[in-house]
Amino acid sequence: MSGDTRTNRVLSSRGMLAWVDAKLLSVCLTSVAMVILAGLVQVSFGTYSMTIEQAWRAVLDPTVIFDSRWLLNFLVGEELMRFITGFQGELPELANETLIVWSIRLPRVFVGILVGANLAISGAIFQAVTRNELASPYILGVSSGAGLAILLTLVVFSGLAPFLPLIAAGGGAVAFFLVYIIAWQNGTSPVRLVLAGVIVSTVFQSLQTGIFFFADDLAVVQSAIAWTTGSLTGVDWEQVRLALPSTTLAVILAALGARQLNVLLLGEQTARSLGMSVERTRFLLSGVAILAASAAIAAAGIVGFVGLIVPHVVRNLVGSDYKRLMVGCLFVGPALMVIADVGARLAMAPVQVPVGIVTGLIGGPYFLYLMRKQQDLGDV
């Protein structure tokens, strides 16, 4: 009896270990290390001079770390913090270094993490839905649609600014719907979807340029230009609060949809034979991808190619199983985004280059590499 018990325990432990993927774990840990190092660089440099030691002391300042009032103040805002805690007095005073790091520099890192995760997840879903390795929210026109909706809000309907994530999602959904209509000919194909995405993206980008002529305020024009190029300059905790709810929902839904994404990769006929409603599933999962992309665009503007590069890199490292792929994208996306933002901030200091330019310089050649490698532009 004891021998059987030991055997069952061994088999059980092996079953548990089967879920532990060494490659995925190494990818995640490496990505976390890269985010931490890039974050260290971000919080250490700026117009206010401080040493690396001072920067890290500010990050780990006990006055903030061990005081839920300050943490809630940053994460949800002062009014909601006071409502939650019932605290009505003055918060403990922070050192200058701590105030600068926590109010200005750390939010930029957190926004980069959220944007990178959203774009990577969105790109991974679109690549499965279209069964095309070249698909991404940028290539399929979703980014341009969301960006156009945001620009209209900023320039024409500024009173709707609190609803930017919903407006961006609506613009992205309209763009993807147009792509599907254009590409549809008794079904769709990977090539037609990409070409239709290029068409819709070009038209929407032209409309974005035209909107500038309706803006009388120079500050609004500059803000609109920052949205179209993708930038983390000047972001603060407001952008973190803006993106966090949509990001959380998108990550949960993407994880729940991993199995369906794996089935879609088997082909439409196989998916239908397994009882899946292919078009319904495709549109529902596309909605998750649009939500993720829109959350990123609402926080940082149109950042290109992250959704294309990251899923492909993760796929090469951990395989095509979407249970692993989604986890890998959730870590590698933020690493790429935060590192790209470090380059954008320091490459031409004191001038800060929009991070979308850096990702474009990385992603453009990589996109060409994928096209050359994939001769028939076929499936994932």
TrEMBL record:
Keywords: Cell membrane, Membrane, Transmembrane, Transmembrane helix, Transport. GO terms for molecular function: transmembrane transporter activity. GO terms for cellular component: plasma membrane. The keyword Plastid does not apply. It is a multi-pass membrane protein. It is found in: Cell membrane. InterPro entries: ABC_BtuC-like, ABC_transptr_permease_BtuC. Pfam families: FecCD. The complex is composed of two ATP-binding proteins (BtuD), two transmembrane proteins (BtuC) and a solute-binding protein (BtuF). Required for corrinoid utilization. Probably part of the ABC transporter complex BtuCDF involved in cobalamin (vitamin B12) import. Probably involved in the translocation of the substrate across the membrane. Belongs to the binding-protein-dependent transport system permease family. FecCD subfamily. This is Cobalamin import system permease protein BtuC. It comes from Halogeometricum borinquense. The lineage of its organism: Archaea, Methanobacteriati, Methanobacteriota, Stenosarchaea group, Halobacteria.
